[in-house]
Design brief:
- The protein has about 325 residues and is mostly helical.
- Helix content is about 55%, strand content about 5%.
- The chain has 2 domains: about 10-95; about 120-310, hpI Integrase, Chain A (Orthogonal Bundle).
- The protein has 14 helices and 4 strands.
- α1 runs antiparallel to α2 and α11 (about 260-275) packs across α14 (about 295-315).
- The relative contact order is 0.09.
Length: about 325
């Protein structure tokens, strides 16, 4: 059965005049007009429920409507779109001299919950790091392995990774690039807000870097002018887009269930480190977060992990309601 469009005939005269104005002057498509009609029908239902004339609704009435929609399961984005339609109607009404003020002006939809960052399970992250593509060019394989180890082992952003040089230099510091100090086992990067930080490079990442550096200049006869740590076939600094593409391909070949991207490895670094240490402040420093509230999202990931372990393993997790 085809869903019928909402009827504008059920609307009050001001609402119908507003729709006519939209149709004539803004030339909105029929589908868009139908959505505006639905919004106005909701608004008039709110006015009837409040026992108030449509054009005399207050901000308190509108906020009550928002609460009702939210309690009814409508998404924050859906509520925001409806409020936008109501706001436009009252703006028109004020301009026409039909309403004294716009009661929707300062009303906002509820904030949508921030989605949890996607992190790989530990076993999948390790599988990706240990994976070696059969028959792959050793030069490419060494480079890609070092990239994975630095992203997962140091929690670098992809921009920080591709900005690394093989060694410290005055030019690198002046131009906002980073470098890896193999002897000290540290990566020096320039993060968000032009803030420099140093992060430890673990044993696996150091080994992968050493293997890559031993091969890095090989295709160029041992002579390579550029200072970029990670380069492409022509010797130019690898782009962030290239890293994304290489990781996606590597994840598919390694048999991972979900597409892998650089920030997922950063999330995995933070989540797995927090699960092991519980040291939120240290994770904040390693990630280069200016505020610890940015890091606290990983505590939600950690709790999610613990809840899953509980559901799988605890004998009381599967107890049925009413059982003694």
């Amino acid at each position: 059965m085809t869903e019928q469009a909402p009827s504008a005939a059920a609307l009050s005269e001001p609402a119908q005049n507003y729709l006519q104005d939209l149709r004539v002057h803004r030339r909105l498509a029929a589908r868009t007009l139908a959505l505006y009609t639905q919004d106005l029908l909701r608004l008039e239902a709110l006015a009837r429920e409040a026992g108030t004339p449509l054009l005399q609704l207050t901000s308190a009435h509108i906020r009550r409507g928002v609460v009702q929609m939210h309690a009814g399961g409508r998404s924050p984005r859906g509520i925001a779109l409806i409020l936008s339609g109501w706001r436009g109607f009252f703006r028109w009404a004020v301009n026409q001299g039909l309403a004294a003020h716009n009661p929707v002006l300062d009303v906002r939809a509820p904030k949508a919950p921030k989605p949890l960052p996607k992190a790989l399970p530990v076993d999948q992250a390790v599988r990706l790091a240990d994976f070696a593509e059969a028959g792959q060019d050793p030069w490419i394989e060494a480079r890609d392995a070092a990239i994975v180890e630095l992203l997962y082992g140091c929690g670098l952003r992809v921009g920080e990774l591709v900005g690394l040089d093989v060694a410290a230099s005055m030019a690198a510091q002046q131009q906002g690039r980073g470098w890896v100090d193999l002897q000290a086992g540290e990566a020096h990067v320039l993060g968000k807000g032009s803030k420099r930080r140093s992060v430890p490079v673990g044993r696996a990442a150091l080994q992968a870097l050493q293997q890559w550096l031993a091969l890095r200049a090989q295709p160029f006869g041992g002579r390579l002018e550029g200072s970029a740590l990670f380069i492409g076939r022509r010797g130019a600094r690898l782009s962030a887009q290239s890293v994304w593409a290489r990781l996606r391909q590597r994840g598919q070949l390694a048999g991972l269930a979900q597409p892998v991207h650089p920030h997922m490895l950063r999330h995995s670094f933070a989540s797995h480190l927090l699960q092991s240490s519980g040291d939120l402040r240290a994770v904040q420093e390693l990630l280069g977060h200016a505020s610890i509230t940015s890091t606290q999202v990983y505590t939600r990931l950690d709790f999610q992990h613990l809840a899953q372990v509980y559901d799988r393993a605890h004998p009381r997790a599967h107890k049925k309601p009413g059982e003694s």
